[in-house]
Amino acid sequence: MDKTIQEGWKTVRFNGSTPKVENETIAIEYPMTVMINGEEFATMVCTPTDVRDLVIGFLASEGMIRFFDDIKSIQIDEEQGFAHIELYKSLDDYEHDHSKRFIGSCCGKSRQFYFKSDVQTARTVTTKLTVTADDCHKAMEELQSSSDHFQKTGGVHNAALWIDGELVVIRTDIGRHNALDKIYGHVVENNIRLTDALIVFSGRMSSEVILKISKMGIGIIVSKSAPTDLALKLADDLGITAIGFVRKNKMNVYTHPFRIKEATNISLE
Asked: What's the start-to-end Cα distance of the chain, in Å?
């Protein structure tokens, strides 16, 4: 039984003005509460796959860990919806408040909004990786064709890690941020080198998405969807090449086009 979908949801489906009752397949929404050192830290709503990756990636993204070895133990109780994490450090050792915004400068332009943890963990990306436009389209096509879950429900986001011409990790979730955290968690636990990696992504490029890939140290994001203005300002500041609307042999390069080989000499200044 596929625990990520619910089959047989009766739905009135219209074809023009003609209604018909059919069974629909729906994406499952699943709450997971993260307990750190016995204290409740956060509750995430997610797709119940690769939950261990999600929790580890979330902790790394929030600045609670830098390396997998920072975790003393991790136990996932999927039946009850709890992740029990023991860290070597006490929570009192962390200057952390993920519920409040901090207005400040990460890269010197003083215009972005960050969580406090983002100020501590977001960093300018300096990767020298370059790719072709064809690489971007092939990566997106492979991501789209690999998602059986999306084809069944249309209700999830997909993210993939592309290295040396291959999608090496693919993760799916109802939340686009969760899909990225699942990638991040796999990277942290397996100590994957990201110097020559890019992210292929089905969802909208928001500021949170750009911040997450900056924390991973990845310099290129290839998305099927649109960006927001704040996302592009962040991408520009953080040295990230943001590529959107990658569809049908077309795409838009919004920031740092020098990483696309056909656009190496084009300036957006």
From this structure: 53
